[in-house]
Known about the structure:
Elements: H1 12-27, E1 34-40, H2 48-66, E2 71-77, H3 115-130, E3 135-138, H4 139-144, H5 149-157, H6 159-170, E4 181-183, E5 194-200, E6 205-210, E7 213-215, E8 218-220, E9 226-230, E10 236-238, H7 240-251, E11 253-259, H8 263-276, E12 283-287, E13 290-291, H9 308-314, H10 317-325, E14 332-333, H11 339-353, H12 362-375, H13 390-399, H14 404-415, H15 423-439, H16 451-464, H17 470-483, H18 488-500, H19 508-515, H20 517-525
Helix pairs in contact: 1-2, 2-10, 6-8, 7-8, 10-11, 10-12, 11-12, 13-15, 14-15, 16-17, 16-20, 17-19, 19-20
The structure holds one RNA strand.
Amino acid sequence: MEEQKIIGKGTWIDKLADELLERERSLGRSTDMIRVESGLGASGIPHIGSLGDAVRAYGVKLALENFGFKSELVAYSDDLDGLRKIPEGFPEWLKEHIAKPVSFIPDPFGCHDSYGLHMSSLLLDGLDKLGIKYKFQRGVDTYRNGLLKDQIHTILTNSKKIGEKIAELVGQEKYQETLPYFPVCANCGKLYTAIAYEYLPDEKKIKYKCSGTTIGSKVLEGCGHDGIADITKDLGKLAWKVEFAARWQAFDIRFEAYGKDIMDSVKVNDWVADEILNFHHPTHVKYEMFLDKGGKKISKSLGNVVTSQAWLRYGTPKSILLLLYKRITGTREVGFDDIPVLMDEYHELENIYFGKIKLDNENKTTRTKGLYEYVNLLNSPKNSTAYVNYRLLVQLCTIFRENRVPKVTKKLIEYGTIKEPSPEIDELITLAANYADDFDKPTKVEIQIDDMSKKALAELTNVLSVESKPEDLQNAIYNIAKSNGIQPKDFFKTLYQIILASDRGPKLGPFILDIGREKATLAISEHL
RNA sequence: GGGUUCGUAGCUCAGCCAGGUAGAGUACCGGACUUUUAAUCCGGCUGUCCGGGGUCCGAAUCCCCGCGAACCCGCCA
């Protein structure tokens, strides 16, 4: 086999960008500006997987720029989407807003203009923190300003053909009867309940009746209103099966990634773009959904989601970027417990990038360095930064609960892990401390202390009132146990339970001196 | 019914998407710390890479066929 030619930085992102360019060239399209798109849901709390769509699209943009082309990421918020389900943990009063566009529902958290804006802001905030640059486009503005009016017109005049094709491609038959456009009912403000039944092409108006619909097993009552909507001005929304295509053409989108859950919609939209709108559909890449650790799909409408905001409490932005750029294939079960590994892995990449670690395989070295560069958004630091193994930090943070940063730093210097304090290390300690507090909670044990042990503990507090060497203290604990007729094993266990709320722990002598004799004495006296 | 992913050490998994000596953690065994539990450190063990075929000088990795598991779609967006 001949040598493989390395494309760009050698990652899947480069390969994808290369294929995209190849396709654009063969289609004979202008490559002056290659726009990539990412859709953002606005109906629920955005989980970390929602970021993936935009982050990966941004990666392709970077690769294209690296190849010498102009590129731009459009982040499209689907905030005209109707609320279908109240996310778990959200207030009940949202019930009356079901089926209304999320942009016209008050923000349950009270900090944004609407429900929809709150959700998309969370996502954009995540992107900002990762350093992803994008052009924000709201669905509401898109329709209100008539940006899709030509596409809507073309789609509606071809609705019969489209309806048949949808049935053929994905087996969904409703669009043979219904027009693929949902007006917002002028009377009750609901989407989906107003059924469009006739399009008047000359006036660009659509006739509808708010007769209600069913979503899943839920029946949504319409208000019965008979209305006419102007597709160039009044609010309404194309069905998902055709909306992407309209957007692609209107915004000249050349690339869009998608999750496998919307595979069918993309199939239909590709056809609509190619055959109805006469616009070659964008290059795609399909990715697997992120699953939570139980293996079920992370639902945007469920509470307790792995959000980027929560992730950043424990991990750096780069750990998220690494998660998303590492690979695109494969089902990923993702959870907060992936953070320590990703943190360490990023540091390993850094060492390879700066030549501190050598790999035997040249291709692999190139690809690994490339991955490092993408995680740094093709703007890699000039020097490597100080780092300490994340697990070690977590462990130290469970031991020191107060004054953590200086105490942990001191220990690290004692261990010879670092030479001096630094802002990077401080930051790492803070992250690991959050992790330790939230996930490494010692399990609460019921402490049973008999009278014999109490006497021994009292003796120990006396010993603790004067200074001693670590090994002397260790011996003292041992001797106190023996002289009171207690198995040293049991006595140590009791002490761990009192001090650490755990059955086991580090060597007690040095440990007690680390946390301070006073503190240990205090903890013991509480049980006397 | 359609589609996708996964199957690697006892266990949890990485490596696969651009083929080049089969890896980590944990568990286990031995040693050190002459004082327990534990931690830590050092050393060691562990494999039908699900099965079968193909391509290749070379396959855990790419292709095809099976088997098993999971997920998505078959409402809507």
